[in-house]
Amino acid sequence: MKHASIADRRNTTSSASEDRSDLDSANGSTSNINSVLLVEPHQSPTNLVFGYLNLFSDGVHNFTDGMALGSAFLLYGSVGGWSRTLFLLAHELPQEIGDFGILVRSGFSVSKALFFNFLSALVALAGTALALMLGQDPGQSSLIEGFTAGGFIYIAVAGVLAEMNNGSSALRSTAIQVTSLMLGMSVALCISLVE
């Protein structure tokens, strides 16, 4: 009887330790998932420099967007200005979300990334104010629009086309790219016809 109780204790202990190891492994996998999701990116100087470069380029881009908005209100009145405002908002929202992700991945905390992204977005107001001040002279407003159009064309040629060429050269991929380009041009044409 004494041997039976020792054997029962061993089985119970063994079973309890197996249950505990199963529980630990389950908790371990959960904690591993949590650690993957909540891991702070490595805050190396290279990562931070990448984040600050992104902030600078986003600020320049937002300044150019602001100049485009200011010149749109000057050249096309409130209807043209507001339609371009809606167009730029549709373009900016996904970009700002992407910029936020880049900042967090570069080592910024979530609150700092939100704050600096907000400051970068405020630069658009400076661009709008500059365009409105310079645009009081009728000859200047068309120059401002030409400057901003040149900036957008540069972004398209240097960034978008280069990225399109990095992909596969399959016929299907090329057809999708050309269709997307034509769709974008059609939307721009429709907006200009409505104004």
TrEMBL record:
Region Disordered: start-end pairs: 1-28
Segments passing through the bilayer: 114-135, 141-162
Membrane topology term: Multi-pass membrane protein
Protein's UniProt name: IAA-alanine resistance protein 1
GO cellular component: membrane
Start-end of Basic and acidic residues biased regions: 1-23
Organism field: Ilex paraguariensis (yerba mate)
Subcellular location: Membrane
Key words, A-Z: Membrane, Transmembrane, Transmembrane helix
UniProt keyword Transferase, yes or no: no
Highest taxon of source: Eukaryota
Primary location class: membrane
